[in-house]
Design a protein that fits this description.
4 copies of one chain form a homotetramer. Chain A is built from 5 helices and no strands. Chain A is an all-alpha fold. The first copy, chain A, folds into 2 domains: 75 residues, MazG-like (Helix Hairpins); 31 residues, no CATH class. Chain A is globular. Chains in contact: A-B, A-C, A-D, B-C, B-D, C-D. Chains A and D meet through α2 of A and α2 of D.
Chain lengths: 109, 109, 109, 109
Amino acid sequence: MSQDRLERLLRELREFVRERDWQQFHSPENLAKSVSIEAGELLGCYQWGPPEDSSRVQEELADVLTYCLLLADRLGLDPLDVVLEKLEVTRAKYPVELSRGRSTKHDQL
Amino acid sequence: MSQDRLERLLRELREFVRERDWQQFHSPENLAKSVSIEAGELLGCYQWGPPEDSSRVQEELADVLTYCLLLADRLGLDPLDVVLEKLEVTRAKYPVELSRGRSTKHDQL
Amino acid sequence: MSQDRLERLLRELREFVRERDWQQFHSPENLAKSVSIEAGELLGCYQWGPPEDSSRVQEELADVLTYCLLLADRLGLDPLDVVLEKLEVTRAKYPVELSRGRSTKHDQL
Amino acid sequence: MSQDRLERLLRELREFVRERDWQQFHSPENLAKSVSIEAGELLGCYQWGPPEDSSRVQEELADVLTYCLLLADRLGLDPLDVVLEKLEVTRAKYPVELSRGRSTKHDQL
């Protein structure tokens, strides 16, 4: 059975942080701030129009994902499981019959 | 061999979006905006101090991750691969000898 | 009677934008994106701990404010009036007796 | 001579905070986080398309501005002066001849 790709990546990330003795900076709050900071840089690719540079979009998206994975790990959460769990909540809030083709928020459906 | 968990999750997300006919709203720019919006809600859990509610942190983190996965998929990128590739870039920018125990930005090392 | 400092500043900002023919990029949405982008850079000053550089904080705060003023102007709003109006709403949501010394959100008071 | 409208507003904001004993929560870092959080809510008005509700845009913009004013005040900065100072820096980075009609970043001009 192939090992989970995510688990292998998380182990590399943990080693990367550990060998630089950076865990001390990785409080959940600092990681949450970092997710926001990098999300702003990703958004910056689209500031005035379509991105001029797709490699910059890829890099900034990678940065947001990296901090999300570090935060999930720090909180003892599996990132794919939490997405799946939230999807079930969203499924209930947005029944297909009411929400199909509409971007309306659930409390206005 | 077990199927990649990420691939199974992505297929569920795609189906979720498709059955609601929401692809029309999922331009890369709208998805990048959504990553920022949800990152702000995640940060909101830490606004005045430690979070009072760990389930809210989990939910908001799930939202950021969800939009990151949707954006990666929309751009034809594998989210785990892009994180791994960026890690190699970061490895070069932050050699262990210079960066160990320090939060200093790479251009100040 | 001295002229309103804010009005003089807004006129300089409008002239600055006009002489560069930049109004075309200043849709309300692009300005809202820019507020978020600069807010992320301001937050970046506090990413791992206290800011090392107070002039950088000042600069990033100036950027957020600039885009807020441009957006207010674009929407025909007076920035100081909207803050005052919102303060009245917040006053009602957070009566002194209930909220004094507490960071609790209004719906939990 | 009419008193500066900004100064009158700042005094109301300070009193509002003081009578609720909220200064304890208003560290520069918490205020910077709050600017980001509210910027995300403002951006949320434009998430999937044009805003459905202009009063919501006004309210969220007021929130961002409020926290910017509180942060400026906490740091001993005049918000209008810092915008004017930054404008001079931007003037030099974006000479009219090179930047007219172009959204190109200054280091690419």
